[in-house]
Amino acid sequence: MTRKHITFLFLSSLILLACSTNGEKTVTFQNEGNPLIRSCYTADPAPVVFDGRLYLYTGHDECFEDSAGYEGLYGFNITNWLCFSTDDMQTWTEHGVVLSPADFSWASGEAWAAQVVEKDGKYWYFVSTQCADPNCKSIGVAVADSPTGPFQDAIGKPLIVDSMTPNAHPLGWWNDFDPTVFIDDDGTPWLSWGNGTCFLARLKQNMIELDSEIMSLPMEDYVEGPWLYKRRSEEGKDWWYIVYASGGKEGGETISYAMAPEVTGPWTYKGMITGTAKDSFTIHPGIVDFKGHTYLFYHNSTLSLHGYGPATGRRSVCVDEMFYNPDGTIRPVTQTYGLPASK
Prior knowledge:
The protein is mainly beta. The protein contains one helix and 21 strands. The strands form five sheets. It has a five-stranded antiparallel beta sheet, with no helix packed on it. Strands 6, 7, 8, 9 and 10 form a five-stranded antiparallel beta sheet that branches. Strands 11-12-13-14 form a four-stranded antiparallel beta sheet, with no helix packed on it.
């Protein structure tokens, strides 16, 4: 066997290992520009900082083998949730699969968008998946003592199911996914989610029960994928933000946002942050402040692996720096492709 063949087998083993390990720091990679993650297909990024280190949680898109370059009749195939982390935005560690729908006894598959938050020394993983009813999207909660797990189902049943949120949306059985959680300065946790309608509810301090009725928030051009957070502007005013996937003005989802003085409103639409994602009908925002910079994570579908892609069901997580105006409004972000991302 030649050195070339040995090198090929070694690199192939790393590719197989990438995105499949569980809780071990086994693979590192360098930020080479967008797409950020190139070892496998990833989607629905959820960044967060724990103890000075940035953790990035994503869904794992795994293409079907039915049609090279396109996802075919089967659409999206999101099988589990992955974790990556970094100290400097340049050198990243892959932690592999940290949670799967199979970890929930009541779930039947599909790893839609999810987010992790820390409270009282525990790490709470709010996920969206399919429940046993074939027409039921649902939100579950897992918990761990470490940002990389092992995570376990926290309540043994869904926290939210579609029967809790009836509305007039034509795809009503898709109401309940894409959860985002933010803990206010006074320790109050808030949960927002929804496809077609943006929902909001207060959580109890135990993080596994609702502590209010479910509210519907009016959001212009809202589609899915809300990202809820709070920030003080340079002018000294506290603002709540919901950044979300908005609908269709450019032939696919864009990222828009609204602001409010209180989490319950009134919410004011402020416009688009990005246009559509390259080669992807969907886009999903995740925003984090890290070492003096604000980063917007999202996905496009520019990555090709093993003869498959680009395709809208084989997505690739990206990141670009985001900036605010003094009044707290967000400046438009230009998506970059194949260029070094901001340090």
